[in-house]
Structure formats: structure tokens, C-alpha cells
Amino acid sequence: MRNWSRVLSLSGAEMLFLMRCLAVVGAVRLGLTVFSYNHVRGLVTRLDAKGAASTGELRRIAWGVAAAARFVPGASCLTQALAGHYLLARQGNASKIRIGIERDTGAELKAHAWLVSGNHIVLGGSISGFTHLVDHGP
Fold it and tell me: Phi first, then psi: what are they for 9, rounded to 5°?
């Protein structure tokens, strides 16, 4: 209930942006359920984005995607990174989806995904404690 009261207190522009984020996060989550990661990644990364996002734009994307993910069941770090990448690319801003695995977890493999733009981690938290595997994006 607390999430809804916060949503209802947003301005009209914030509400529209959150709804756009919700639609993208939901579509990416559905896509990852139905299709392979490579297929969804191909759709999300097809936009040619070369610009650098401002810190304000990165914070706005981080807020919108994280807030929308609270309403989408199973919206994992990978779902959020893909959705954020798409939203940034729609604005012409370049980013990468970084995938890594956690070190020293024993027999259990723990993977994680981040959205990185320039030198900024937009979504996914700290990279320390993880081994970098691959970056997807320009």
C-alpha cells in the first residue's frame, strides 16, 4: 500500500515517466520469459546511441526502472539493466549491460547484471566482489 501512496503523490510528468518505465520493464520481463536472452538483448540494443547521459538523466532512469521493477514480479537485475539500456538509448544515450559472477561462492554460481553508462553504474549496485564476464552494448 505504501508504494501506491508514493505513486499517487508524483507529479504528472513523473507519473508518465514511471508508466513508461513500467511498460518497458514489463515488456522486457515478458520477453525474457518467452524468448532467449540473446533475442531480447538484440531487440533492446538495436538502437544506435552514442551520446553521454547527464548525471540527472542517469538518476532519473535509475529511479524510474527501480520503482517500476517493484511492481513487476520477477524483475531481476538483468530485466532492469535491459530496460534501463533501452530507455537511455531512446534518448540517444549510450550504455552497456555488464554481466559478472560473484567470487568465492563455492559450488553455487551467482550471476549479476549492471547497467553502466560511461564511468557510472546506473543500476545494479556495487561491482566489487564480482568477476567481470562480458559487456553488451556499444
Answer: -90, 0
